[in-house]
Design brief:
This protein is α+β, with helices and mostly antiparallel strands. It has one domain: Alpha-Beta Plaits. The protein is built from 7 helices and 4 strands, in the order βααβααβααβα. Adenosine-3',5'-cyclic-monophosphate (CMP) binds next to loops.
Amino acid sequence: MLTLAIIKPDAIEAGNAGKILAHLEGQGFKIRAARLVRLTKAQAEEFYAVHRERPFFRPLVTFMGSGPALALALAREDAVAHLRQVIGATDPAEAKAGTVRKLYAQSRERNAIHASDSAETAAREVAFFFPELAP
Ligand code: CMP
């Protein structure tokens, strides 16, 4: 089973991408595809379209295009649910000790990593960055 992660621009800028990748591999995830991207405004808007009406949408789109980000297709048993556990709560103040966001996130917006939140979302998000993996 595949899921989609994005190591966000704040984590790349802070030099934490390698440590986050090692953390994910240590949790049993195998990298099936990886791409360093610089999201355009249109791409970030499309990726986060579900949040279009939320007050944080515009800053989120701006932030996600503010620098390089690393998109990852990750494989593991129960990948979607497990990756959500490993990354922790959206807000690092609420994330459990040892989670990626507790370790590396700066704030609810600059929160180091994105992960798909359901199997349906994972299929859409993996295809968004890696159409070549589509069944
Ligand atoms: P992510 O998993 O990438 O999905 C949506 C993102 O919106 C989320 O992580 C946060 O970085 C960002 N965000 C900013 N503010 C909020 C908020 N108040 N509630 C939820 N997500 C937020």
